[in-house]
Design goal:
single chain; alpha+beta; 2 domains; globular
C-alpha cells in the first residue's frame, strides 16, 4: 500500500511540476517585448533631381544593395549628379525593398507614414548652391535646407527638397543624402547623429 501511495504522490508531483512549467513558459512569452522600430530593409535608392522649369531636365543617381540582407550595404553607382547653372531642382527619392521581385515594397511610403520617426539630412560642397547656402545640415542640424515636407509636429522630413544653383560652376564636388531613423528621438533640434542611420549615400556633384 505504501508503494502505491508513493507512486500516487510522485504522479501528482509530476503533474503539478508540469503545470507550473507551462504557466511559467506562458508568462515568459507574454513578458517578451515585441521588436519595435526595426530599421527598414532597403535594397534600392534613387535620388531624382527634376528641374522645376524644365520637366525634361531630370538627373537620377542610384544605389543598390548587391546582396540583399547580406553583409554588404547600399553601393552608389558611378553616375555623377550633373545639374545646370542658374536652375532650381526638386529632389525626390525612390526607396524600395526589392528582395522579393514579385512583391517590391515602397519604403518611401512607409517613411512618409512614419514621418515623425525619420528625417533626411544633407551635406554638399561649400556654397555649391545659392539656395540653400553653406554646406548642409549633417554637421549642424539648424543649417539651411529647403525642406518641402514635414511631420505632424512641424519638424522637417525631406522626401522632397529644392536646390537652386548659381552661375558658378562646380566640378568634382560632393553631395550626400543621409536618412536617420529616429523613433522617440526626433525633435526640432535632433540631428544627423541621433537615432540610427538607414542609409548614408554620397555622389560626385557637378554644376555646369
Amino acid at each position: 500500500m505504501k508503494t502505491i501511495e508513493l507512486f500516487k504522490n510522485l504522479r501528482l508531483l509530476a503533474l503539478l511540476f508540469g503545470a507550473i512549467t507551462i504557466v511559467s513558459c506562458s508568462d515568459d512569452d507574454d513578458a517578451a517585448p515585441e521588436e519595435e522600430n526595426e530599421l527598414e530593409v532597403i535594397t534600392n535608392v534613387s535620388l531624382v533631381f527634376t528641374n522645376t522649369a524644365d520637366a525634361t531636365d531630370v538627373v537620377t543617381v542610384s544605389a543598390v544593395d548587391p546582396d540583399g540582407e547580406g553583409i554588404q550595404g547600399l553601393q552608389e553607382d558611378n553616375t555623377a549628379i550633373t545639374l545646370s547653372l542658374n536652375a532650381t531642382y526638386r529632389l525626390s527619392f525612390v526607396i524600395l525593398n526589392a528582395l522579393d521581385l514579385d512583391d517590391v515594397e515602397d519604403i518611401g511610403e512607409e517613411i512618409e507614414e512614419e514621418d515623425d520617426e525619420h528625417q533626411f539630412f544633407f551635406s554638399f560642397t561649400q556654397d555649391a548652391f545659392v539656395n540653400p547656402t553653406g554646406d548642409g545640415n549633417v554637421d549642424t542640424a539648424s543649417d539651411p535646407i529647403n525642406y518641402e515636407d514635414e511631420d505632424d509636429n512641424g519638424n522637417p522630413l525631406g522626401l522632397s527638397t529644392t536646390w537652386t544653383t548659381g552661375a558658378t560652376p562646380v566640378a568634382g564636388g560632393n553631395f550626400t543624402a543621409r536618412l536617420q531613423h529616429q523613433p522617440d528621438v526626433k525633435t526640432a533640434t535632433s540631428g544627423a547623429n541621433d537615432g540610427d542611420t538607414d542609409f548614408n549615400l554620397s555622389f560626385v556633384l557637378n554644376i555646369q
